[in-house]
Design goal:
Elements: E1 6-8, H1 10-18, H2 20-29, H3 40-58, H4 64-68, E2 74-75, H5 79-86, E3 92-96, E4 101-105, E5 109-113, E6 125-134, H6 143-158, E7 166-174, E8 186-194, H7 200-211, H8 224-232
Parallel strand pairs: 1-4, 6-7
Antiparallel strand pairs: 2-5, 3-4, 5-6, 7-8
């Protein structure tokens, strides 16, 4: 169906897994699900964290968050490349000749690990670090976060980097117990995730195949947007 260049992100793959019908409409016809309430505060925290981590990177200093959580890693030293990988319109990319499609992702940050004594070739490894800010009382790791980190690991390896097959989620959780007083307090928590990029290519291939169909597939049985549409249809005339 689609004649446009196919470029998919982790969010695109997540939408495909949630509902192929909504995915097909979004990518082929530009018919998108109603957007959620804009998370302006989350975006602001994300931007501030990038500035903070970049300050430590420029000084070649370990970020306190890594030290506090006993993560034996450095901040990725190539700021120019990181800026490219962070860019929503560039990102870290992989073009598949057979599929004639691109998979890309915009990372928040990257950790670099020195080679272990037993590693062959003494090659440094890199892993994705994603910032998450939340007003919930706990750090919830959703399936889409796992998919996101799996995809970043896949992309890093396709770009010639070695990885430890791990990713990191840095949660900044609003600490409501400490009040407000013109300053929003956060407590910080880092969760290490085992990543498995082995399924990403098949998901990518299936998603591309879906887009090339002349008509959309059926909604997923648990698609909440389909349930809403079915409920509203009797009143639409």
């Amino acid at each position: 169906m689609t004649s446009k260049p196919i470029q998919l992100s982790p969010n695109s793959l997540n939408l495909f897994l949630e509902c192929p019908h909504c995915f097909w409409l979004d990518k082929n016809l530009g018919i998108k699900r109603p957007p959620p309430y804009p998370y302006a505060l989350n975006s602001a925290v994300d931007g501030l964290l990038k500035e903070e981590f970049d300050t430590y990177r420029a000084k070649n200093l370990p970020h306190p968050l890594l030290k506090e959580n006993n993560i034996d890693a450095h901040l990725f030293g190539n700021q120019k490349l990181l800026n490219q990988w962070r860019n929503n319109f560039a990102g870290i990319r992989y073009f598949d000749q057979n599929l004639q499609a691109t998979l890309f992702g915009a990372v928040d940050d990257v950790l670099e690990f020195d080679p272990s004594p037993g590693d062959s070739g003494q090659v440094k490894k890199i892993a994705p670090l994603d910032y998450k800010s939340t007003g919930s009382s706990a750090a919830n790791v959703y399936d889409r976060f796992q998919l996101q980190l799996d995809t970043y690991t896949f992309l890093m390896e396709k770009n010639g980097f070695s990885t430890p097959r791990k990713g990191y989620l840095a949660f900044y959780i609003v600490d409501k117990s400490r009040g407000f007083i013109d300053r929003l307090p956060f407590r910080k928590e880092v969760i290490e995730i085992e990543t498995n990029p082995s399924d990403i290519y098949e998901i990518f291939k299936d998603a591309v195949g879906c887009l090339k169909n002349p008509a959309p597939p059926q909604h997923s049985s648990d698609c909440q947007f389909k349930k809403w549409l079915d409920g509203a249809r009797p009143f639409s005339n």
